[in-house]
Amino acid sequence: NFWLRTSRLAAFFADKIDACTVSGVEMAATADPLKAVYPNPAADRVWVYFQSRLPHVEIDLADLWGRTLGRTQADHADSAVLDLVGVPNGIYVLRIRIEGKVYVRRLVVGM
Q: pTM for this one?
């Protein structure tokens, strides 16, 4: 018996193909602390919900060029709200800083 292995549209035969055995599957140790960004698309405001109550969170709203258009923060909360009044319709990025890590979510405003 021979196995066929291809590379760059060429073929050759190999007597043996190495394989590995999977011994288990587990979730990554770092779970996402964000539960939801709602509503999306948004109109006047957007809520960011967390998996648990967090000591300090900073949220920036940025356009696709990286310019910060809005900012809010929450202390000892399981959610935060960002006011979108005056923000033009379009696609934006939420940069959410939690305990030294930055999480990014896409946000659509008014479409």
A: 0.70
| Cβ-contact 87, 65 below 8 angstroms | no
Any idea where the domains of the chain sit in the sequence? 33-109
pLDDT in tens, 28-74: 556 789 999 999 999 999 999 999 999 999 999 999 999 999 999 99
CB 76 within 8 A of CB 53: yes
- Counting every residue written for the chain, the total comes to 111
Closest alpha carbon to 102 in 33, 45, 27: 33
Q: State the architecture of 33-109 in CATH terms.
A: Sandwich (2.60)
Reduced to 3 states (helix: H, G, I; strand: E, B; else coil), residue 87 is coil
Q: How far apart are the first and last CA of the chain?
A: 59
